[in-house]
UniProtKB/TrEMBL annotation:
It comes from the Bacteria. InterPro entries: RibonucZ/Hydroxyglut_hydro, UPF0173_UPF0282_UlaG_hydrolase. This is MBL fold metallo-hydrolase. Keywords: Hydrolase. Pfam families: Lactamase_B_3 (PF13483). PANTHER family: L-ASCORBATE-6-PHOSPHATE LACTONASE ULAG-RELATED, UPF0173 METAL-DEPENDENT HYDROLASE MJ1163-RELATED. The keyword Repeat does not apply.
Length: 259
């Protein structure tokens, strides 16, 4: 990745900013304050931490990756940070959120669908990747559709592959879709969300992830979607305990140079 200048900032939950040269990508803006209680269909969750960002973080974002409609991924505060000039790639169940601000400049992607975004000397192919958002069939159906994303970033003769898992578990359907791919950077949603609920966990446990990651063999792993909400039941230390030097350690508000 020496041909690219890459920076990553985690704001909390699955909200992050990824900069590649002069390109700026945002993900899943959920910015409610600490102690906000969110009401889901069958349970509640509380935000444990303040979102850690500066206003400039959300300025001039070239495109957003929106995975799904759940309020630990997008909320009434976060959606206002999506500027009308920014391109948005989203699951179709985000329509009810995006109509609050504008209804143009959005591509709703089905699994396997691809779009191309170009800026200066960068060409980015965005592909929607399947997710299975629970550990049994009934809970997965109730949770609804979720997109992961695979980004292929090309500059001259250089290329990097970035996999954003979205909310998924270690399911054969997802692994089959990804077979034969290799990721330079993987941004997985960890935290064993809903581990104590029907059909849980809804996202990777550390143990699940360490099996799943072999599918794409990432060079660098940037784990998010832990700590922020009470729904996330497993501490990140469970993943750190594997002592895998590909797993970078950072906290909410931290900015990393990814090399």
């Amino acid at each position: 990745m020496k041909d690219f200048d890459i920076k990553f900032k985690w704001i909390g939950a699955s909200t992050w900013i990824l900069s590649i040269d002069n390109l700026k990508i945002g993900s899943d803006p959920v910015l409610c304050q600490k102690d906000t209680l969110q009401h889901y269909r069958f349970f509640k969750t509380k935000r444990r931490t303040e979102p850690n960002y500066e206003s400039k973080d959300f300025e001039n974002i070239d495109f957003w990756l929106l995975t799904h409609e759940h309020e630990d991924h997008i909320d009434a505060y976060g959606v206002t940070k999506i500027e009308p000039e920014s391109k948005v790639y989203a699951n179709s169940n985000l329509k009810k959120w995006l109509k609050l601000i504008y209804a143009t400049n959005v591509d709703y992607l089905k699994w396997g669908e691809k779009k191309i975004f170009e800026k200066e000397n960068l060409k980015i192919t965005i592909e929607a990747i399947p997710c299975v958002h629970a550990s049994n069939y009934i809970a997965a159906k109730l949770a609804g559709s979720v997109n992961g994303y695979w980004l292929t970033v090309e500059k001259n003769k250089s290329k990097i592959q970035i996999y954003v898992t979205g909310d998924t578990v270690n399911h054969q359907k997802v692994k089959t879709f990804l077979k034969g791919r290799n990721a330079d950077i993987m941004i997985p949603n960890i935290g064993a969300g809903g581990l104590d609920k029907f059909g849980g966990p809804y996202t990777f446990t550390a143990n699940q992830f360490m099996d799943f990651e072999k599918t794409v063999n990432p060079k660098i792993i940037l784990p998010v979607h832990h700590k922020t909400f009470s729904l996330y039941k497993e501490p990140i230390e469970k993943l750190y305990a594997y002592n895998d030097n590909r797993v970078l350690k950072f906290d909410e508000g931290d900015t990393l140079e990814v090399k």
